[in-house]
Amino acid sequence: MIKKTKFYSYKTGCLAKGCQLCVKGEKLVLFVTGICSRNCYYCPLSEQKKNKDFVYANEWKISNDKEVIKEAELCNAKGAGITGGDPLLRLERTIKYIKLLKKNFGKNFHIHLYAVPETINKNNLKKLYDAGLDEIRFHPDIENSRFWDKIGLAKKFKWKVGVEIPAIPKKLRETEKLIEYLVSLKPKIDFINLNELEVSDTNANHLVEKGFVPKNRISYGVLGSEKVALTLLKKYGKKINMHYCTAKLKDKVQLANRIKKRAKNIKKKFYIVTNSGSLIRGAIYLKELKPNFGYHKKIQSLTNSEKKKLIKELNRFKLILEKEFNIPKDMFFVDVLKLRILTNIGVVTHFAEYIKKNKFVPAIVEEYPTWDQMELNIEFI
Ligand code: SF4
């Protein structure tokens, strides 16, 4: 029987352990490379990540192992989902991170990994298993059965094996063929996850070309995806554990739960944390770095010595505010990533004229508590 979960998804049977932790926001998303052996038309990877060989722990672009651990700690992660690109194209890196996370957080830190059948073999599966991987999820090509038989290789190891694919409108018959193949496997795989097909900045043109449209104005979910998923759950849900994961689950539950934990851990006494986990703060910007079109690119293009100079300037003004108005030191924080001073709303509103007279820009900002502090709203004063 199909059950609607309390987190806007549908399931039959049991939810995979990786998903149980994910919905609680307890999984670190470890993106190990944007390089991929496939080129799916629905690939949701952003331009920043697609075919780029970078590592991200959640939103943090990683330059050393300590940052991965730090991000996991800041989100109180109880596990990680390793993704890409194709993590197996950077096998040694992937193995290094599995070992690193297990060593730091213990063997119960649950790690699942997304792989495509094209690049797996007995050898690399054994290496992943020996490193401590708990769950492997395959993303086979729905329209080409050439590599499907490789999925069975993973059942030679004592971990959980699943398949995770998008529910694509107009591809019901092709998806049925794949699921029929999967349920016939002996030994059986453990679960099938169907994801709501989503529109992203990068795949929008390809999806529109194929006649797919968003289901409504506020959702990234594609019209018809849910219908395909529920038809498949109804038809095969008795034979295998199935889960239909919606765009709403990812946005309203998984991301929201994760950012609430991070907000708590990075909170300073002058931040206001909203019910959804976003932060409202006062911000004092340098005039030349006032947020507007191209603001992020401008920051990224600064050299280290330019940044140092601007940070010095921010520290100088912070000191003036402390001394001039007798404001306690801990009411200010120089944000070296976005090159601004953060403080409470009272300071920026009360001293707005003074701040402007000194050629700085006061504002009230609402942002995600993620590493990239994505802006939700900026109100200049
Ligand atoms: S396998 Fe995944 S990462 Fe690679 S192209 Fe397809 S959707 Fe994108």
Q: Output the strand order for the largest sheet.
A: 1-2-11-10-9-8-7-6-3-4-5
Instruction: Label the structural class.
Output: alpha/beta
Bound molecules: iron/sulfur cluster
Beta-strand proportion? 15-25%
Give the overall silhouette: elongated
What's the gyration radius in Å? 23 Å
**Ends: how far apart?**
55 Å
The count of strands amounts to: 17
Helicity level: 25-40%
Low-confidence stretches: none
In DSSP terms (H or I, runs of 4 or more residues), the helix count works out at 12
Compose a concise summary of this entry.
With about 375 residues, the chain is of the alpha/beta class.
Describe what you observe in this structure.
This protein is α/β, with parallel strands linked by helices and 381 residues long. The protein contains 12 helices and 17 strands. The strands form 2 sheets. Strands 1-2-11-10-9-8-7-6-3-4-5 form an 11-stranded mixed beta sheet. A hairpin with a 7-residue loop joins strand 16 and strand 17. The protein is elongated and about 75 Å long. Iron/sulfur cluster binds next to loops.
What features would you highlight for this structure?
381 residues, 6-stranded antiparallel beta sheet, alpha/beta, 12 helices, binds iron/sulfur cluster, 17 strands
Mind sketching the topology for me?
Blueprint: E1 3-4, E2 10-12, H1 17-23, E3 27-33, E4 56-57, E5 60-61, H2 65-74, E6 79-84, H3 91-105, E7 110-115, H4 122-131, E8 135-138, E9 160-167, H5 172-184, E10 191-196, H6 204-209, H7 225-236, E11 241-245, H8 247-266, E12 272-273, E13 279-286, H9 295-301, H10 304-325, E14 333-335, E15 340-343, H11 345-350, H12 352-357, E16 360-367, E17 375-380
Parallel strand pairs: 3-6, 6-7, 7-8, 8-9, 9-10, 10-11
Antiparallel strand pairs: 1-2, 2-11, 3-4, 4-5, 12-13, 13-15, 13-16, 14-15, 16-17
Helix pairs in contact: 3-4
Iron/sulfur cluster binds near residues 43 and 86.
